[in-house]
Design goal:
By secondary structure, this protein is α+β, with helices and mostly antiparallel strands. The protein is built from five helices and eleven strands. Helix content is 31%, strand content 34%. The strands form three sheets. Strands 7, 8, 9, 10 and 11 form a five-stranded antiparallel β-sheet that branches. The protein has a three-stranded antiparallel β-sheet with strand order 1-6-4. A hairpin with a 2-residue loop joins strand 10 (170-180) and strand 11. Helix 3 packs antiparallel against helix 5.
Amino acid sequence: MKKTVSLCALGAGALLGVCTLVVGCKPDLTQANAQAMVQAEYDHRPAAGVNITIDEIGLRQGVTAKYWAPTTLYPNKYWADFTLTPEGKKVVKLPDGGDVIHWRPESLTDKKFTVVVTTITTTHLKARDLKDLQDEVGGSRSLQYNESVGLDGLPDPLQNMAHNASNKLSTKRQADFVVESGAWKLKSIE
């Protein structure tokens, strides 16, 4: 009985191989399978903190959330230093490793000045808003989607800051898939 089952399995595998080589049959690649492969690639990469660009609105949100407090106001009335509070040090870090945000806009009306903070909580990118799979030349397939920053696990004030206009939370990407050894594989993400 075991020999019969083994022979049947071997025969099915050989038939699939012949089908793939001779006739050009390929296993089916669904949108869900493609998304799972892309997400597995993102989850395989090391988790990282989210860079949040802080504009004037975000600066006020951080003061309200008690993540930083004003410590120095300069004579020109638009430069200031904000020191991270103990609560702030638990949720963000500054690029220079220090604990002081140096707010230095060019003028009182400068609305473009920003600083960047990085979350202590690390996350993985997410594959979202998938388009239909496209057949490509040579039998490969491609999938367009949005690569989104994962905000899961971040406190609400940080999520609100991340949604301010100065932040870009998603990027259009394309994933390419090829058949290798009879199975679909993720070839690249562009």
